[in-house]
Specification:
six-stranded mixed β-sheet, binds iron/sulfur cluster, alpha/beta, disordered C terminus, 33% helix, 6 strands
Length: 263
């Protein structure tokens, strides 16, 4: 399917009343493969939302001889993930037919980054943190999305103040493709219930107080009542807590500024 920003209103209308399995089935039909290449991508952070989506996509493609030809499922291995996250990648390989492809950062770019600021440069400034996310996440994401028409994410509106203005189907101006957020209006409890009902494996870190997963040095457990993403880059204010994967270059600067305790 040829995509441009102009197709988004029609896509929104077509999919407005679809429940989650129907929305995913519609996405697979709408963004069908180009020959042997999947034009639809699914980005997994190995978090709760993405485990649910992976299990549903895997089920939707159960009778497909080659599921990866319909959807390019991938994760970004930054090289700084928790051991529990690598364990889950291993479990997913044994559980699902739909393979999760791991994208790594370019070795030379990581070497240059560390030569400039050291392995933990991200604690020193927002600029350094964004540089690290740029090398370890944004550049690999750009490679993973190159040539695709649409991508599915596990974003939810309730996750943070940076995600309140999203739409279930929207134009991703940064990558020039359609972005599908099927869980946008789900609560964390609804996601957890669906995972239990479907017996989907999840990251062991969730039981230790991590609702949102990221790199080990930049993520910690949250306290009851805190924002779901308060444990991500906890030393920064809440309106900065994105790594560039979901950046909207046309968005105005955030109005709200909250500060959490930290370094
Ligand atoms: Fe680097 Fe932290 Fe971003 Fe991971 S989350 S890429 S370690 S700054």
């Amino acid at each position: 399917m040829k995509v441009s920003e102009a197709v988004v209103p029609d896509l929104l209308n077509e999919s407005r009343d679809l429940d989650l399995p129907s929305f995913l089935a519609w996405s697979l039909r709408k963004f069908g493969p180009d020959g042997e290449n999947a034009t639809l991508a699914f980005a997994s952070s190995l978090g709760l939302e993405d485990q649910l989506l992976l299990s549903l996509l895997d089920e939707a493609l159960a009778s497909h001889p080659q599921p990866s030809a319909s959807v390019h499922a991938f994760t970004l291995d930054t090289g700084r993930l928790n051991p529990e996250t690598y364990d889950l990648i291993q479990v997913d390989r044994q559980t699902f037919r739909l393979p999760l492809v791991s994208y790594w950062p370019e070795a030379a770019a990581v070497e240059a980054l560390i030569a400039r600021g050291g392995p933990n440069l991200f604690y020193e400034s927002l600029e350094n943190r964004k540089a690290c996310c740029g090398v370890r996440k944004v550049a690999p994401l750009n490679r993973a999305l190159a040539g695709r028409s649409a991508w599915i994410t596990g974003l939810r509106r309730a996750q943070s103040v940076t995600r309140t203005d999203l739409h279930r189907v929207e134009w991703d101006a940064a990558h020039g493709l359609v972005k599908l957020n099927p869980l946008l209006d789900w609560t964390l409890d609804e996601v957890r219930s669906a995972l239990v009902a479907r017996k989907v494996p999840v990251n062991a870190l969730h039981a230790q107080g991590y609702p949102s997963l990221g790199c080990a040095p930049c993520t910690r457990a949250v306290q009851p009542g805190e924002d779901e993403r308060a444990g991500r880059w906890w030393w920064e204010s809440a309106d900065k807590k994105e790594c560039g994967l979901h950046a909207d270059p046309t968005a105005p600067a955030p109005k709200k500024t909250f500060t959490f305790g930290g370094l």
